[in-house]
TrEMBL record:
<dbReference type="Pfam" id="PF13478">
    <property type="entry name" value="XdhC_C"/>
</dbReference>
<feature type="domain" description="XdhC Rossmann">
    <location>
        <begin position="85"/>
        <end position="226"/>
    </location>
</feature>
<protein>
    <recommendedName>
        <fullName>XdhC Rossmann domain-containing protein</fullName>
    </recommendedName>
</protein>
<dbReference type="InterPro" id="IPR052698">
    <property type="entry name" value="MoCofactor_Util/Proc"/>
</dbReference>
<dbReference type="InterPro" id="IPR027051">
    <property type="entry name" value="XdhC_Rossmann_dom"/>
</dbReference>
Amino acid sequence: MSSGWGERMNPVSLKKLNEERRARRAAILVTDLGDGSDRLVREGEAVQGGLGDAIAKAFRSGSSGSVEVDGRAFFLNVHLPQPRLVVIGAVHISQALAPMARVAGYPLEIIDPRTAFATEDRFPDVTLHAEWPENVLAGRPLDGYTALAALTHDPKIDDFALKAAFDAGCFYVGALGSRKTHAKRVERLLAMGATADEIARIHAPIGIDIGAASPSEIAVAVLAQVIQAFRSRGAAAGRGEAA
C-alpha cells in the first residue's frame, strides 16, 4: 500500500521504514514537498494539528497521496501491513468465509486440532493448521493487523486464541455463540487474566446484525464486521485525533 515515492527517500528513513515493515507495523513517510525533507511517522505516534488529522485518516484508509496543511504541501506515503484473518475452527462458516475473505483481500488461515474437520478436502487452497492454537501461534504470532474469529464453540480451543488476540492487540476479535455462552466465556477469560476492557472488545455474537441464519450468511456478516473494524481502527479510541 504505497505509491513508489520511496525512490526519493533518504537512507535513514528507508532503514527505519524497512524495520517497521519487517515487524508488520504501519508507518507513513511524510515528505515536505517544499524542501524535500522527510520523516517517518509510526502508527500511534503523536502529530499535532491538521497534519496529524491527515496522517490519522491516511492510516485508516491506507491510501497514499498529497495533502495541504497551513499553506504547506506534504506527500504521505502509506505503508500498511496486509491485514489477515485467523479463524479458529474448521467449521461450515469457515468454509464459506475462506473464499469471501480471499476476494476481499484478507488472507485467511484456519486453526483447528480436530483432524476430522481440518482436512484439505473441506478446505482446498486454504492455509490450514490441524494443531492446537497454542502450538500454531507460537510460531505464527498474532499482531495488530490480524483479525481473529473464534468459531468452534469449544473453550479448550477458542479461549487460548482469544487471550492471545488481546495480548497481541488484534484489530478485531469475534467469537461465535449466544449471550449465555458468552457470559460463561467471560468468566473463563477473566480467570485467565484478561481484563474487562479487553473482553469488551469481543464481538459476540459475532458478525454484523443482518439477521444471518445460514453459515454463508453468517460468513458475510463476519467479513463485513472485520472490514468495518479495520477501516475504523483507532477512531473510537481517539487515536485519530492524537496520531
